[in-house]
Amino acid sequence: MTTQAKLSPTLVIGAGAWGTALAMAIARTGQEVWLWGRDQAQLAEMKQSRENGRYLPGVRFPDSLAIVDDFELAAKACQHVLISVPSTAFVATLKALQPVLKASTPVSWATKGLTPETGQFLFDAAKQILGPQQPLAVLSGPSFAAEVADNLPTAVTLASPDQGLLEDLAELMHSPTLRVYTTHDVLGAQIGGTVKNVLAISAGISDGLGYGANARAALITRGMAEIRRLAAALGAETETLFGLSGIGDLILTCTDDQSRNRQLGLALGKGLSVADAVKTVGKTVEGMHAAREVLLRAEQVGVEMPIVEQVCKILFEGYDPRESVQTLLCREQKAELLHPAGNQVN
Ligand SMILES: NC(=O)c1ccc[n+]([C@@H]2O[C@H](COP(=O)([O-])OP(=O)(O)OC[C@H]3O[C@@H](n4cnc5c(N)ncnc54)[C@H](O)[C@@H]3O)[C@@H](O)[C@H]2O)c1
Ligand SMILES: O=P(O)(O)OC[C@H](O)CO
């Protein structure tokens, strides 16, 4: 058993795949972790079996992971809250926390996306709901839950403007199998984690259509150019997007079939309707929630995102995936990198 870090116990909110995997990863370092989920029957089952049979069957909980069912009591008594619910439930979770949480308790989250109705970055929503004093951090980067649960090597990005919090959280989470890299660029980390999900849908579509490795590499690279342009226009540090939370997560999600966003694209490329593809995947697909909001943001700052635009057309306007990919391929010829006045990159 190691010495308890400053932020123990951690309360993990959201007993899905990622919340459970993170709870296990932190608990494996000997830290005390409480895992809470909204489904009381699932909590009772996990208490009894010491595993999350619904999302990560067969992986036993470490001894220092406890299942808790009293949300308010746990939120009042913990030293750190780590939220891992889908973006659609993020605001509701913050609103439930706000009245019970001490203003000094750090709140981090592993949710990737924007708020559904308002298209806000989650950091902005959290500041608004919890107040300016609450210490906040974002966890992002290339990380499939099943691999983290299996204790396979993983590296993630932790972002916060608060250097002290970054150090405390890194001390809490870092282990020989979970490497935690830190950054102050919260916006950059959020942009990468949000947009890569939309682009993974496009890579899945292309592969589902049987377009091959060349097309996939082109989509990843041109998708990266879209992320970079948006990041620059919104004021993030574009350097961040060439790290784990940007290109790292983009590569992971576009190329591996564990990705639910890619799975959705594959189903669409193989000819399923959007409704059937969503049903086939049957799990959280954040890119579907984020696509329209990302495009709206891009339009507001005058940034072109042709791949994101075609994904939106397929998801929400009934466009045929094959025609959409053709539209991308038929765009006018241009230079790959433009340096007309300084550093403008196309
Ligand atoms: N699964 C991964 O590999 C992975 C990795 C990195 C990041 N993420 C991100 O983590 C977030 C959660 O993803 P996941 O894979 O754990 O999803 P999941 O579908 O496996 O689980 C989501 C969990 O959230 C719960 N939930 C839904 N609405 C809720 C609410 N209102 N209040 C409380 N709980 C609620 C569900 O009951 C479920 O237990 C997403 O934003 C995802 O992009 C996932
Ligand atoms: O399964 P996905 O597509 O939601 O991806 C999971 C993680 O975000 C990968 O880093």
UniProtKB/TrEMBL annotation:
Pathway this chain belongs to: Membrane lipid metabolism; glycerophospholipid metabolism
The enzyme's E.C. designation: 1.1.1.94
Tagged with keyword Lipid biosynthesis: yes
Main location group: cytoplasm
Keywords attached to this entry: Cytoplasm, Lipid biosynthesis, Lipid metabolism, NAD, NADP, Nucleotide-binding, Oxidoreductase, Phospholipid biosynthesis, Phospholipid metabolism
Function summary: Catalyzes the reduction of the glycolytic intermediate dihydroxyacetone phosphate (DHAP) to sn-glycerol 3-phosphate (G3P), the key precursor for phospholipid synthesis.
Residues given in the record as sn-glycerol 3-phosphate binding sites: 112, 141, 143, 196, 249, 259-261
Protein residues bound to NADPH: 18, 38, 55, 112, 145, 260, 286
Similarity field: Belongs to the NAD-dependent glycerol-3-phosphate dehydrogenase family.
Catalytic activity: sn-glycerol 3-phosphate + NAD(+) = dihydroxyacetone phosphate + NADH + H(+); sn-glycerol 3-phosphate + NADP(+) = dihydroxyacetone phosphate + NADPH + H(+)
Binding positions for NAD(+) per the UniProt entry: 14-19, 145, 260, 283
Residue ranges of domain Glycerol-3-phosphate dehydrogenase NAD-dependent N-terminal in the record: 12-163
Keyword DNA damage: no
Residues involved in substrate binding: 112, 260-261
Transmembrane segments: none
Record: active site: 196
Cited PROSITE patterns: NAD_G3PDH (PS00957)
Residue stretches making up the Glycerol-3-phosphate dehydrogenase NAD-dependent C-terminal domain: 185-325
GO biological process annotation, one example: glycerol-3-phosphate catabolic process
Protein's name in the database: Glycerol-3-phosphate dehydrogenase [NAD(P)+]
Localisation per UniProt entry: Cytoplasm
